[in-house]
Amino acid sequence: MREHDYDLYVIGAGSGGVRAARASAALGARVAIAEQGQLGGTCVNAGCVPKKLFVYGSRFAEDCEDAGNFGWRVETPDFDWPTLRDNKTREIRRLNGIYRDMLEDAGVAIQVDHAAVAAPHTLRVGARSVTARHILVATGSRPRVPAFPGNDLVITSDDTFHLADFPERVLILGGGYIAVEFAGIFAGLGATTRLAYRGELPLRGFDEGVRRFVLDEMRRKHVDVRLNARIAAVEEKPGGLLCRFDNDDSLEVDAVLAATGRAPASAGIGLPAVGVRLAANGAVVVDDDYRTSVPHIFAIGDVIDRVALTPVAIAEGACVAERLFGDGQRLVDYAAVPTAIFCQPNIGSVGPTEEAARKRYSRLRVYESRFRPLKHTVSGRDERSLMKLLVDGDTDRVVAAHMCGAEAGEIIQGVAVAINAGATKADFDATIGIHPTAAEEFVTMREAVR
Q1: What does the domain layout of the chain look like in residue ranges?
Q2: CB atoms within 10 A of CB 254
Q3: Is 435 a catalytic residue?
Q4: Any idea which fold 339-443 has?
Q5: Which helix (H) or strand (E) holds 118?
Q6: How far, CA to CA in Å, does 12 sit from each of 58, 113, 170, 379?
Q7: Interval 213-244: pLDDT, tens
Q8: Which tens digits make up the pLDDT trace of 136-155?
Q9: Please, which of 133, 237, 391, 424 could form a disulfide with 365 given CB 3.0 to 4.6 Å?
Q10: pTM score, two decimals?
Q11: Domain 151-260 is of which CATH architecture?
């Protein structure tokens, strides 16, 4: 008789949890997964996928403006919010179905209910109990709203994908990537958009040159960015919301989006009661094998607050599966994780910032190019691109690349392969560029600027 109902029970069917469940089942484990929301987690339902669809939608106004100088006669565009919102929803439902099919095809039992750890090897799933040899927590994160009078009147990024009406005037609180991305979305879709950030530059943690470049580009695209601005209160008024700041400024808008970060979703699933240690911010504390303070309970993804990116969670999920049911050799390398921000223009980045690299490499060489993309020499649009390579002067190895420009994420993905493979600046120089493209700048920058 089997000791437990399952070899692995996964709480949370986001990208990381689904990968861990499928990979474990493929290795012969009996696996179940619980999800009280939609399959696919934040990325599919309220993050990467719907957000990028909105980014695509927000670009068409500029495309229509640019078309004239390329010989196209385009009527004044008229945006219909319900069409974008509802088409996005149909695509998300299709992806939900794909996730269900993948789990079922792998032989994973799907339980649509709230799951919580009730005892060391026991979970309460809805009204029933199940037991598992191993438990994996992959519950992701949730939007965090700061405390101030009237904060119950604001929306979060999760809410933006389902708004009944498109707001004509929007205030976005925050300066991280979610705030910056939604500023571009709302402005591109035609809203009067303001962004208020309490710091001196948005995108804290990113390369400073990129941060300053993006700030300039946001303002070019009609986003009213207010720095060193702290929200004091929001109150409802006839016809809108009155927002007050701590410097006595005020403004009226139709919607306030709090894009002020996300918090690990570790509450309500019984972890502290069974001895799982949590950090001060609620993150589940794990070791290098993603094992918590309770040896048979593991955690991955946003809930461990390590690198909150979907592909990282997927890699962590595969790693746990291999550790538990495979040969245990798989590792996740966090040294040079590529990432993209779908602001406008996009950011693509891999490796340390220039500021961090200067502390690590005594002879750092910086190669940088700023230019007007070929398209805009005809469109007339005042938009520029930035590309940057960081090179260890002692070894000639390229240690980082940063870009702000059209399709930066698509370009940086290939550059990330080279950097992870240890390519040198000489290797980049020896590579023939594809002309005319923006990407060729990465293999034609010859003189260090710093």
Answers
A1: 6-142+263-325, 151-260, 339-443
A2: 16
A3: yes
A4: Enolase-like; domain 1 (3.30.390)
A5: strand 115-119
A6: 31, 10, 32, 46
A7: 999 999 999 999 999 999 999 999 998 999 99
A8: 999 999 999 999 999 999 99
A9: 391
A10: 0.96
A11: 3-Layer(bba) Sandwich (3.50)
